[in-house]
Design goal:
alpha+beta, five-stranded antiparallel sheet, four-stranded antiparallel sheet, 15 helices
Length: about 475
């Protein structure tokens, strides 16, 4: 690796400014105009290190619009080498670093006060698509990857409901969707990774090469290494989606039908929604999809057998249109900057109906925001050890994707406190946290979250990120 030190020019507004050094005392980057003898020379980069207010403000925000931690600089890497260089620089000078994908966190997880945020959008190359796999940079959006693979009749087995997320972002958390009922999480469909560890090593890892690192980085919340490239599994893609929206009179009827559908894996995609009803109460909708390619067609009678909805709606659309169905809506919502105090928890099967029933009894439609998801997944399909799940063969995901409209800080704080109560109640019945939401947690809470695996987490942190450089916004080891 080229270790020469040099100057890097970047644009601040319309004026070019040369960043030449880092001032550790003032925790800031200095230019030629104000460089002091105590400054530390900035390494040469292939990309750019920017300190303009707009870039730093963007990195101090996310989709939740609740937490705002301002970095001292944003790295727009021109190469993986830049990430190695910056992580090593951070280790040497007491900085913290976080990788930011598409900014879809909701509680400051990818933010770092006084440190450096790496913007992965400048590393977004699809390097190769083969018959059973694709090699992509971490900054690639799943939307772009799916467009490219479908051109060759292929698809990733599991897609999140919103495709505007980055590959590196979802692989750091898990990546769940309706096809998890067949294929596990997105992290269960990764064949190899290239990562930069917290101590600045660029390593390739897989089930047979640096396997400990591989198993801890997938779903590891950015604590041990930064994912810079991934080899993800592909499967043949069908062309058409037949969508079944099945409605039930109550929660127990819906979850019973979901368990039946999950048991024989009859649907290619299985989810469910709890929808506020006009005049109060809730509608309970099982959402099942059958993927197929004409001239074959799904057998409606077989797919609906034993599910007993009180009403149903059946529609067809191209496979890609189904996967991308909410992208435009999310993009329309982004400019509104609505605070999003989400809560996402995994629940053991046996506790789901009672827990969710209590939640709905006390959940005002306005506090639900717009979308409440509830659906089962088989625990056996989810294999990555740091994705913490209840001890139950079937696990339900409850996701309350709140949006506070109009924005109101008092409501946000009230809902954060409510999230904490709901989290504690979920823990009491054996539930766990799917860490994409906005739940105020302490390091002690994280220790409880990992339970018997906490020693493994702490050991991996010490081994791969001994100076605790990476991703402090999660608050796992220290309060951010």
């Amino acid at each position: 690796m080229d270790t020469r030190l040099g100057r890097r020019a970047f644009l601040t507004g319309a004026a070019a400014v040369a960043v030449v050094a880092f001032d550790p005392g003032g925790l800031g980057w200095v230019t030629e105009a104000d460089a002091s003898p105590g400054g530390i020379t900035v390494p040469g980069l292939d990309g750019e290190l920017v300190v303009d207010p707009a870039s730093r403000a963007e990195a101090a925000d996310d989709y939740g619009h609740i937490v705002h931690r301002t970095p001292v600089a944003v790295l727009r890497p021109g190469s993986v080498r830049d990430i190695v260089t910056m992580v090593r620089f951070a280790n040497a000078h007491g900085l913290r670093v976080a990788m930011r994908g598409r900014g879809h966190s909701t509680f400051g997880q990818a933010q770092v006060a006084g440190g450096v945020v790496i913007d992965s959008r400048t590393l977004a190359t699809i390097h190769r698509i083969d018959a059973d796999r694709a090699v992509v940079d971490a900054g690639v959006a799943w939307l772009d990857l799916i467009r490219a693979t479908l051109a060759q009749g292929l698809t990733p087995p599991v897609a999140t409901d919103y495709l505007g997320l980055s590959v590196g972002g979802t692989l750091s958390v898990g990546g769940i969707g309706g096809a998890t009922s067949h294929f596990g999480l997105q992290v269960d469909n990764v064949l190899a990774l290239e990562v930069v560890t917290g101590d600045g090593r660029l390593l390739r890892c897989s089930p047979t090469e640096h396997s400990e690192l591989f198993r801890t980085v997938l779903g590891g919340l950015g604590q041990f290494a930064i994912i810079v490239r991934a080899t993800v599994r592909l499967t043949p893609a069908e062309t058409t989606a037949r969508v079944y929206n099945l409605f039930y009179p109550d929660l127990a009827s819906m979850t019973a039908a979901q368990r039946t559908a999950l048991a024989d894996r009859r649907f290619s995609y299985l989810e469910g929604q709890l929808i506020p009803a006009e005049g109060g109460g809730w509608q309970y909708m099982l959402e099942g999809v059958a993927y197929y390619t004409p001239p074959s067609t799904p057998d409606d009678a077989a797919l609906l057998a034993g599910l007993g909805p009180v009403s149903s709606q059946i529609a067809e659309m191209p496979y890609f249109d189904w996967l991308n169905r909410i992208y435009a809506l999310v993009e329309q919502l982004k400019p509104l900057r609505l605070p999003g105090p989400w809560i996402n928890v995994f629940l053991p099967d046996q506790a789901t109906d009672a827990y969710v029933g209590d939640v709905l009894a006390n959940l005002a439609p306005a506090d639900a925001g717009g979308v409440v998801l509830l659906y089962p997944v088989p625990r056996a399909e989810i294999t990555r050890p740091l994705v913490m799940l209840p001890d139950s063969p079937v696990v339900f995901l409850l996701a309350i994707l709140r949006a506070v409209s109009p924005p109101n800080d008092a409501d946000v704080q009230r809902l954060l406190a409510d999230n904490r109560v709901l989290y504690d109640e979920a823990r009491a019945v054996g539930g766990t946290h799917y860490p994409v939401g906005a739940i105020p947690l302490t390091p002690a809470d994280w220790r409880a979250h990992y339970g018997s695996r906490y020693a493994e987490v702490a050991l991996a942190k010490q081994h791969f990120d001994p100076n605790h450089v990476l991703t402090p916004g999660q608050g796992i080891f220290h309060q951010p």
